[in-house]
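Input (structure):
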């Protein structure tokens, strides 16, 4: 009985490994055929013959590609290439309670890089109406917000508007996923060093002043100063 159970486990591992390899080969095959979004992929039988595996393995591999959002079933066309919802897929696992400590810290660092790096996009695309809206957002923040290291409600409103101004939809979606993780890491003393005696930093209001009268380089420096206390907790 023990040997029989072991045999079943080995077969499961072998099949899984084979499907993994077929998924990779399928993606490569679709690239070689230069198929684009909306194009039909080869039929199961053709794939079976081309890749030299059973239809069962092909079906499992195709199921995985569907779960990844790379293909979808269409009436009268069979399976077609699709543009995957990358951020939808990522959001399913972007839960701070299930991510390991290294991943959480790295996500925290990614957001810092994005905030500093968006300067040129902002200055290319910002309008007087955007400046006005940012002023309104800042005016509605309680005075204490100008002296806090991080408050997620204020961050969502102010920084969310900055991402909106960039006009980059991918950035906006990514930011919405990053903020809860950023908030979680910020509040976790086991992931970052304890907050140091509070340092002077550039406020939201000062960042708006830079956007209205400064340069992209001024903004990069200003945003870096705005985030200084986060860097202190990472590196000190």
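Output (sequence):
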């Amino acid at each position: 009985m023990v040997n029989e159970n072991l045999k079943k486990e080995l077969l499961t591992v072998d099949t899984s490994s084979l499907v993994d390899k077929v998924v990779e080969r399928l993606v490569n095959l679709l690239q070689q055929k230069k198929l684009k979004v909306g194009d039909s992929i080869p039929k199961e039988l053709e794939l079976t013959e081309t890749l030299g595996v059973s239809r069962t393995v092909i079906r499992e591999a195709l199921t995985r590609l569907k779960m990844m959002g790379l293909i979808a079933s269409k009436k009268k066309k069979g399976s077609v290439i699709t543009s995957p919802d990358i951020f939808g897929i990522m959001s399913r696992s972007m839960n701070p309670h299930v991510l390991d400590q290294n991943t959480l810290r790295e996500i925290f660092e990614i957001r810092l890089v994005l905030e500093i790096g968006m300067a040129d996009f902002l200055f290319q695309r910002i309008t007087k109406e955007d400046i006005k809206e940012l002023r309104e957002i800042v005016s509605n923040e309680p005075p204490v917000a100008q002296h806090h290291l991080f408050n997620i409600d204020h961050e969502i409103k102010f920084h969310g508007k900055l991402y909106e101004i960039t006009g980059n939809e991918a950035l906006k979606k990514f930011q919405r996923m990053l903020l809860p993780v950023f908030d979680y890491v910020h509040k976790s003393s086991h992931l970052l060093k304890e907050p140091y005696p509070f340092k002077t930093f550039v406020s939201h209001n000062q960042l708006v002043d830079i956007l209205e009268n400064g340069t992209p380089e001024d903004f990069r420096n200003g945003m870096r100063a705005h985030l200084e206390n986060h860097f202190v907790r990472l590196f000190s």
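Notes: Confidence is low (pLDDT under 50) at residues 6-13, 145-149. The first strand starts at residue 71 and ends at 74.
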